[in-house]
Structure formats: C-alpha cells, structure tokens
Amino acid sequence: MRTHPAGCGSLVPISAQSDAVTTRTSTAPAHPAETEQSEAARLFSLSIVISGTRCLLTYIVFPWVLPVLGIAGGVGPAVGLTVGLVAILFNILSIRRWRASNHPWRVPLMVLNSCVIAFLVVLVVIDTTALLT
Question: Please, are residues 17 and 9 in contact by the beta-carbon 8 Å criterion?
Fold first, then answer.
C-alpha cells in the first residue's frame, strides 16, 4: 500500500489497486504531478460552474425571470441543450485530468463528475424532446 501526503504531516493510504484502475487507461497528456493536480482541480471547478450555470438558467432565469420581463419565451430548451452539452464536455475533460493525477481525492471527484454527467444527459434528453415537439 502506498501513501501520499495529505498536508499537516499526515499520510493518506492509496491502494495499489485503485491506482492501477484509475491510471491504467488514462490518455491525458503527461505533466508534472503538481501541474496535473492544479489543472485537474481547475477543470473540475470549471465543469461544476458550467453545470451550475445550466441549472440556474434552466430553472430560474428562463421560467421565472425572463417571462416577468416579457422576453425570451421558448428559448430555454435551446440554450439548455447547448450549455448542457458544453457542461458534459468539461466534465469529461475533468475526469481525464483526475485519472492522470495522483491526487488522493481523484476517485471520489471522478464519481462526482460522473454523477453530474448522468444528470446532464437526462436534461439534454428532456431539452431535445422539448425542441422536437
């Protein structure tokens, strides 16, 4: 079993099996470990912000704010579809970076990215259906 520093002098064990599973098939470009981790964290943050923006637009701005102002009737699904697809792309890029890093939190963060992608796929299907009907 390997350990990685977690800060404040403590060590966090990382099993060799999870190491092998998360890095074996990685196709992300090789970077120094510190750069990998900061890039992975940046992409993760960006993907979550984009996903959150999509939800804010879909559930607050388009159905409540814009109709009150008397504008943008019916553009919600088109914008939701576009932002949803961009959010899925950035979540996939974030997963690729986490897989390439040796960050101790990479597996839980990849699971979170995957859950967000699953949620976004459902929303993309809903938006596509709304546009086609």
Answer: no
Looking at residue 103, what DSSP letter applies? -
Q: What percent of the chain has pLDDT over 70?
A: 71
3-state helix, strand, coil in the chain (%, to 5): 75, 10, 20
* pTM higher than the cut 0.90: no
What is the rounded distance in angstroms from the CA atom of residue 59 to the CA atom of residue 53? Answer: 10
Q: Output the CA torsion sign for 111, 113, 115, 121.
A: negative
R_g (Cα) of the chain, nearest Å = 19
Please name the residue that has the structure tokens 């009907």: 133
Contact yes or no for 101/40 (Cβ under 8 A)? yes
